[in-house]
Amino acid sequence: MTALRIDVVTIFPEWFDGPLRTSLLGRAAEDGTLELRVHDLREWAIDRHRSVDDAPYGGGAGMVMRADVWFAAAESVWNDLPPAATAGHSGPPKDAAFVAGGPRPRTVLLTPRGTPLTQPLAADLAAEDRLVLLCGRYEGIDERVHDAVATDEVSIGDYVLFGGEVAAAVVIEAVARLVPGVVGNAASTEHESFSSGLLEHPQYTRPPQLRDAGVPEVLTSGDHGAVDRWRHEQALELTRRRRPDLLAGDRDPAG
Ligand code: ADE
Fold first, then answer.
1. Which residue of 54, 111, 140, 184 has the fewest C-beta atoms within 10 A of its own C-beta?
2. CA distance 199 to 33
3. Cβ contacts of residue 140 below 8 Å, gap of 6+?
4. Ligand 1 residue neighbourhood (C-beta within 6 Å)
5. In this predicted model, what pLDDT tens digit does every residue of 45-65 receive, in sequence order?
6. What values do phi and psi take at 228, rounded to 5?
């Protein structure tokens, strides 16, 4: 059974072929745990050039993505209607369950001005049964899309990308691996960096000696209590050195 359906709307649908079809994500999509649908925003364009942007009111450089095209795309995707049912229409589709400005599935607009993506935010999104991700070009999207189409605005960090595609792939990967059935071993997502609020402790496997580097003795001692204590101390120390902000409570855990 599908645990989570993710729809992505982008002007570069082919960009997602690689990242979404490989490794654990690809397997989850294949076995149906995860359903990923990628839509080309231009399907909802209304002119023969299939344009999705226009010059900004008030003047200035760059182009702004059109709200009418985004409204039509979102209402079509939310309600599983074909592009022809919404493209170029002035109002929302008749009898639609989901409309812009009204009740709608969790719809995340990727933008550098959004809420920073954190592990708690990823977990919150993973609890949904549907997500819609909107990839804009960074120069700008008509503000009415921010207001009436998006339910969330998310940033993957304080830097600017050309567009939301890479950010959407990051959100998909962070969210998908928290969906039961996507990562085989549930414990492997529990003990890792960030879910405890600490960076993960160092790990070792065979061989026991590589050139001049050995393995900490405690790990081969068979003393599980000592191993747990060592791992916790290491995690604390690593976090103190590399990410003191995580310990100081600088970050809002609700993310
Ligand atoms: N689009 C452009 N830059 C972005 C960022 N840092 N996070 C999310 N979406 C973006």
1. 184
2. 29
3. 56, 62, 63, 64, 65
4. 110-112, 138, 155-157, 159-161, 163-164, 167
5. 999 999 999 999 999 999 999
6. -60, -45
Residue of 139, 141, 146, 161 with the most ligand 1 atoms within 8 Å of its CB, for mutation: 161
Is-above-0.70 flag for pTM? yes
Cβ(206)–Cβ(53) below 8 Å: no
Torsion angle, alpha carbons of 173, 113, 200, 198, to 10:
-140
Please say whether the dihedral angle defined by the alpha carbons of residues 111, 112, 114 and 120, taken in this order, is positive or negative: positive
Residue whose C-alpha is closest to residue 162's, from 223, 111, 225 = 111
pLDDT at 253: 52
**What is the DSSP-derived secondary structure letter of residue 205?**
-
Separation of alpha carbons 196 and 175, rounded Å: 17
Give pLDDT, residue 190: 64
Q: Count Cα neighbours of 210 within 13 Å in the Cβ-side half-sphere.
A: 6
Pocket test for ligand 1, best of 160, 162, 166, 171 (most atoms within 8 A of CB): 160
Token pair for 3: 């645990």
- CA distance linking residue 77 with residue 87, whole number of Å: 12
Q: What angle do CA 79, 145, 74 make, to 5 degrees?
A: 15
> How many other β-carbons are positioned within 10 Å of the β-carbon of residue 247?
13
Per DSSP, which regions of 128-251 are E strands?
130-135, 152-155
Q: Cα of 171 to ligand 1 centre, how many Å?
A: 11
